[in-house]
Amino acid sequence: MAKGAKGDVKKVVLAYSGGLDTSIILKWLQSTYGCEVVTFTADLGQGEELEPARQKALLLGIKPENIFVEDLREEFVRDYVFPMFRANAVYEGQYLLGTSIARPLIGKKQIEIAEKVGADAVCHGATGKGNDQVRFELAYYALKPDVTVIAPWREWDLTSRTKLIEFAEKHQIPIAKDKRGEAPFSTDANLLHTSSEGKVLEDPSQDVPDYVYSRTVNPEDAPDQPTYITIDFERGDAVAIDGEKLSPATLLAKLNDLGRKNGIGRLDLVENRYVGMKSRGMYETPGGTILLAAHRGIESVTLDRGAMHLKDELMPRYAEILYNGFWFAPEREMLQAAIDKSQEFVTGRVRVKLYKGSATVVGRESPYSLYDQELVTFEEGAVAYDQHDAEGFIKLNALRLRTLGQRNKRKTGR
Fold first, then answer.
1. What is the pLDDT of residues 368-402, one digit of tens each?
2. Average pLDDT value for residue range 244-256
3. Phi first, then psi: what are they for 348, rounded to 5°?
4. Do 297 and 88 meet the contact criterion of CB atoms below 8 Å apart?
């Protein structure tokens, strides 16, 4: 059920950032539902200290044993980001799904904590207009079908920033000074990306103000000399940069730093939300942009044409499944199995040039390469390919076109 009567909920696990909105939600849950609140704060590489969230939860009356703070960076990249990048997933041709891919992991952890502490409900702080409410709740229901879900933004009457501030002051919730006015835009961040939307970004005819960007230098201000790096892959996953073996999260963090310095990964996008409306957002995905280019580079020499083209046909569907929140659905798992099968020989090294906003593959090599220089050379050789065979190949493929041409000629009389 979506929610029960207010008195039915005994204990709820709240996805808690420590910010104003989720702190208000915490107190609202206590006063509206009269239930015990358990907070869960995830470190997904958003670049913020998490200890203040623990301290704020304590300040708001949460028992120490009901405060969960977990470092999920390695699990996030290893089990969510990397599988997604094996598919080269891009939503509507551009978006690298940085927010979408984080929600199922947060939802999974909330359900695990709910099972551990005996909670009968879970709660998120997503608004009723966005995609995240869908992503969180689809994860909850997939993993605990009978769970009660509380979505405050769809229930309460705190519909303005003024009302939120008044509620916070009434309940002695600390308010950062910069939160007393209207925020110029909202952000979400993790190790893969930062997204910004709303307020100053709502008019799609206007440029994104410079101050919105937080993870990349302006490409025009990036170094005048290119940076060259190598990325090693094993079975479709990046494992090393410049020959240095790195853990998944450490590798992505290093790519982020390289991308930031070179102004790589900015995207100004108007997208189609799953809930039906269009929205304008600004995304910064520095390391992911490099990783996508490099992965396609190593696939270009290791994937068979049929496998590569089928993957490219499946990719938009896979990306849409992730964007819409169906990570735990059987169709995503089925596609993932096919994608992972394709990566068995996607192993090797790619050389990438980073320069003023672009990541360009300039070299690729693999012990499993399907590229045969003898076959493609213009010089003598290529005993496996007889150019005379091409004539029959072309005539067979042209047969239906010639038949159609003859029919059209009869119709026109020419």
1. 999 987 777 666 655 677 889 999 999 999 999 99
2. 98
3. 155, -160
4. no
Question: Which of 109-118, 140-149, 159-168 has the least mean pLDDT?
Answer: 159-168
Range 187-303+345-365 has CATH code 3.90.1260.10: yes
**What CA dihedral angle connects 25, 202, 76 and 297, to 10 degrees?**
180
Determine contact, residues 124/133, Cβ cutoff 8 Å.
yes
What is the residue whose two structure tokens read 């623990």? 54
Give the single-character DSSP code of 112.
H
C-beta separation of 144 from 115 below 8 A: yes
Contacts of 209 (CB under 8 A, 6+ apart): 200
- Listed by start position, the domains of the chain span 6-74+99-182, 187-303+345-365, 374-412
- Residue range 6-74+99-182 forms a domain whose CATH class is alpha beta
Question: Tokens at residue 13, please?
Answer: 């696990």
3-state helix, strand, coil split of the chain in percent (to 5) is: 45, 20, 35
Which tens digits make up the pLDDT trace of 92-103? 999 999 999 999
> Which amino acid, residue 398?
A
Q: How far apart are CA 223 and CA 219, in angstroms?
A: 8
Helical ranges in 211-268 per DSSP H: 248-261
Judged against a pLDDT cut of 90, whether residue 6 lies above it is answered with no
Helix axes 132-143, 103-117, angle to 10 degrees: 40
Confidence at residue 4, expressed as pLDDT on a 0 to 100 scale? 47
* Catalytic residue ranges: 21, 103, 132, 186
Are β-strands 194-197 and 278-284 bridged in parallel, bridged antiparallel, or unpaired?
Answer: antiparallel
| Predicted TM-score (pTM) above 0.85 | yes
Mean pLDDT over residues 152-160, rounded? Answer: 90
The answer for residues whose C-beta is within 8 angstroms of residue 256's C-beta and 6 or more apart is 191, 215, 286, 287
Of 37, 45, 43, the C-alpha closest to 17 is: 43
Residues 285, 192: Cα–Cα separation, whole Å: 6
List the single range of 177-181, 271-275, 301-305 with lowest mean pLDDT: 177-181
CB-based contact 173:23 (threshold 8 Å): yes
